[in-house]
Amino acid sequence: MSDPLVIGGRELTSRLFLGTGKFASNRLIPGAVQASGAQVVTVALRRVDPDFPEENIVNFVPEGCILMPNTSGARNAREAVRIARLGRAAGCGNWVKIEIITDNRYLLPDNFETIKATEELAAEGFVVLPYVSPDLMVARKLAEAGAAAVMPLGAPIGSNRGLKMKEMIRILIEEISLPVIVDAGIGRPSQAAEAMEMGAAAVLVNTAIATAGDPVAMARAFALAVEAGRTAFLSGPGEVQQYARASSPLTGFLRDE
Amino acid sequence: MSFYEVYRRFKDFDFTFFFNQLTDSDILRAIGKSRLSELDYLALLSPRAENYLEEMAQKAHHLTVQHFGKVILLYTPLYLANYCVNSCVYCGFRVKNDIERKILSFEELEAEARVIAGTGLKHILILTGESRKHSPVAYIKECVGILRKYFTSIGIEVYPLDEEEYAELISAGVDGLTIYQEVYDEDVYLEVHPAGPKRNYRFRLDAPERACRAGIRSVNLGALLGLHEWRSEAFFTGLHANYLQNRYPDVEVSMSPPRMRPHAGGTAPRVVVSDKNLVQYILAFRLFMPRGGITISTREGPELREHLIKLGATKMSAGSCTAVGGRTGAEKSTGQFDISDERDVAAMTRVIYSHGYQPVFKDWQSI
Description:
The complex is a heterodimer of chains A (257) and B (367).
Chain A: E1 5-7, E2 10-12, E3 16-19, H1 29-36, E4 40-44, E5 66-70, H2 77-89, E6 95-98, H3 111-123, E7 127-132, H4 136-145, E8 151-152, H5 166-175, E9 181-183, H6 189-198, E10 202-205, H7 207-210, H8 215-234
Parallel strand pairs in A: 3-4, 3-10, 4-5, 6-7, 7-8, 9-10
Antiparallel strand pairs in A: 1-2
Chain B: H1 3-11, H2 15-20, H3 24-32, H4 38-44, H5 53-68, E1 71-81, H6 106-117, E2 123-128, H7 137-147, E3 153-157, H8 163-172, E4 176-182, H9 186-192, H10 201-205, H11 207-214, E5 218-223, H12 230-247, E6 252-256, H13 275-288, E7 293-296, H14 302-308, E8 315-317, H15 345-354, E9 358-360
Parallel strand pairs in B: 1-2, 1-8, 1-9, 2-3, 3-4, 4-5, 5-6, 6-7, 7-8
Helix pairs in contact in B: 3-4, 4-13, 5-13, 6-7, 7-8, 8-11, 12-13
């Protein structure tokens, strides 16, 4: 069954986005991308080094993938906008993941500055995917500002803690018409499946794959989990029951008259 | 508010008494916590915690991979000038040392920059002695302007500046500040800095905070190990890092644990800090500041540096030279101290890869 995810006018068949930081070698990236089936790959522009092709992270992203540069290192909207423009000027395309972090302990995103940057970059024609703490009002403002998707964190970046923000993300999925992509915190394939079962449009995974003992095998595991979760969502999982269905029901004495 | 107030709170703290009353469960509890208190950190710096180094190492390794990935950022120091008006007893550049004094001309700087850029490095740390006459802020600023053509991240390790001067250099393209307090114990500080502007303990102590207020992106702190009892010095360094991270959450805070090295006019360390001590310090700091950077310079030897890759290090220097003009100059001047790991960038790259880590050359883009 055809179930494409459409972002910025592009039809994606894979709902697993891959991050490229933290790998033990850039040479592991192509294998991990291939095993994950990812079509969207994010790279930190701060790491892009056109002067050094042998190590330039961009050169390890397989052809055909959509490069989604991120603004890691930006501390406010102004810096994020400048980084995004530098990326586009350097030939990294017009997708951008806005990442504005003013808290180095938990690396939680600054939603307020992210909205400002989204507004500005969307107006400049970027396909903007903002990384935010899940909050309905913020997501609505991002939609108004022209975001192409909303990327709420499941848990702090790199924490592998899973969907700690599950209830807030569920509200976004129910209320926002933009694709909701769970970014950050997903540490296990089962957690990715859980996000997809809930109705997330996609998940973005980096640490869990990059720092796995076998990143390629883990990428494959995530691909399977995302597919399983999506299929389950589409097939309409049965309602969760709080109580067992008793074989001698309490209302069994009632008869239709 | 200044870190000095935090320092004062612990200035007369009875470290020996605290260490003596610690139990094994205090250590294990501290290791198990996700957010350590100041005294948990001190517990991990105690002699008793030496029995738990492996447990600390496992957690430190895990935290570092989780937060930084399997990567080591490479940089190299570039000495601009060795003129100095201070009399620091532990330093080869001190005013009364009869060494050849030199300052790089802009042409010489450009030549050095070209050599370094040829190795692929993008992060540079520039250093001077303390001489506002020979190496004034205006000179440093001009150097930064030249270096921006070759490097995407420029750090300074120069004499302490006021806030406006930091702002001036930041707008010129500086994004990182390294400044070591050298020794946090105020009395020892005055002993080892007998003359010169560096005697001003408070002005140096507050320098990183002035840079934070001026908008610096990263600060790197340190106590020079060997000048005083290392456990309390490590404690104050951690508290200083923690203080800055709390007040300036958007600044990347890191620390270096430099050990004293032989230098011209050599003075022996007052306290010997063993490899085991150094490792304990690094591990305790990692557990206390899971996202704090840890910089390991070529003051340490090849073997130890390689072990530290898996124990919490996030940044290492390579192809270092502590002499002014040392990379190009036929007339090589005396270095600030002797380095222990002389491997060049290509060799360090191979070594880091051989340990299953990625050497990163560029982790910031001047914007």
